[in-house]
Amino acid sequence: MYFFTITATEEDVFILTTDGDVKFTSNSIAFLLDLMVRDDSVGAVCARTFTLGNGPVVWYQDFEYAIGHWFQKAAEHVIGSVLCSPGCFSVYRCKAIREVLTTYASNVNRATDFLTKDMGEDRWLCTLMVQAGRRIEYCAASENSTHCPETFDEFFKQRRRWVVSTLANMMLLLQQWTYVYKYNHRVSFLFLVYQAVLLFATLIGPSSVVLVICGKIHSGLKYSWNWNPVLTLLLQLMICVGFTIICLITSTKTQLTVAKILTFLYAVVMTAVAVGTALQISNDVNGLPGAEANCQNLDSLNNLRIDLEWESVAYLLKIANFPNKKEMSHYSDRYKKIK
Question: What is the pTM (predicted TM-score) of this model?
Fold first, then answer.
């Protein structure tokens, strides 16, 4: 009988993290481990996550997961490093965790620490790994399914944690980009620019929605319901300020109720904006009367019409054979004043 002794280094010890409601197969784990053993600098590998559940909220998350969990992670994997390996189904290298464990387990001393450390623990851990020089990869071949929120209240609470955690960690990464760029050779300047653009687009997202609705950028309720853009802008600013005050002084139940009402109203408004903008684009393309592109040339068209009318009047005066040129000049002067 022969005995073989396999000596594993500390780089070959991994932790599989998963939630209790996640469905996966042994092949999914094998795909994750395959990427881990190829490169010792890889600190974690995440999989491709699908949603489980029924209802409109789940249907929306199907689209959201495809954008945020598939396309965005694939882009980060190609040009740099994935910034969040979700705790629902990922494999972490034990040595990589131990390297940042002291900082990861530190206490919350500031308000910003609460956003980074307590609102999204997995993203905070991945941020520390990237800062330490580790790379986090995405494996699309490894698939898993997780139960996502099916009610608005549960979904709203989850996204309120995820969004602020994402923004806080992205800001932290960009604030220390010189340090990260120096010690992590997988993080390129293009990757940092990509993250800066994503952060900027996220921050201006609410203001972009306000401008689209009020019609300041060739769209909005001005074309659908003929609302005044300035009044629409003021109304939305009042709604934003009012909802901010509600979030500061009222209970969670009241906040969720108001959020439901505003979500429904903005869904109706954005539908009207989309229809009105589509009709305006169709008018502009087809050159229909009333299109904005034609309205801009209305003055020149009116001037051309007046010139043609005056030539016609002059011709008729000539045909009428007025008794003298003085009377003809009298009618000519009167028409020029009208013009």
Answer: 0.75
How confident is the model at residue 275, as a pLDDT?
Answer: 81
Q: What is the pLDDT of residues 22-57, one digit of tens each?
A: 999 999 999 999 999 988 899 999 999 999 989 989
Residues 10-203, CATH architecture = Alpha-Beta Complex (3.90)
Q: What is the pLDDT of residue 307?
A: 52
Other CB atoms within 10 Å distance of the CB of residue 114:
14
Residue type, 63: F
* CA gap 255, 245 in Å, rounded: 10
Q: Domain residues of the chain, as ranges?
A: 10-203, 208-293, 297-338
Cβ proximity of 213 and 236 under 8 Å: yes
Q: Are the beta carbons of 227 and 221 closer than 8 angstroms?
A: yes
221-274 pLDDT, tens per residue? 766 677 788 888 888 899 999 999 999 999 989 999 999 999 999 888 888 888
- 75: enclosing H helix or E strand: helix 72-79
Classified as helix, coil or strand, 49 is: strand
Cα–Cα distance between 92 and 71 in angstroms, integer?
22
Any idea which residue has 């201006």 for tokens? Answer: 204
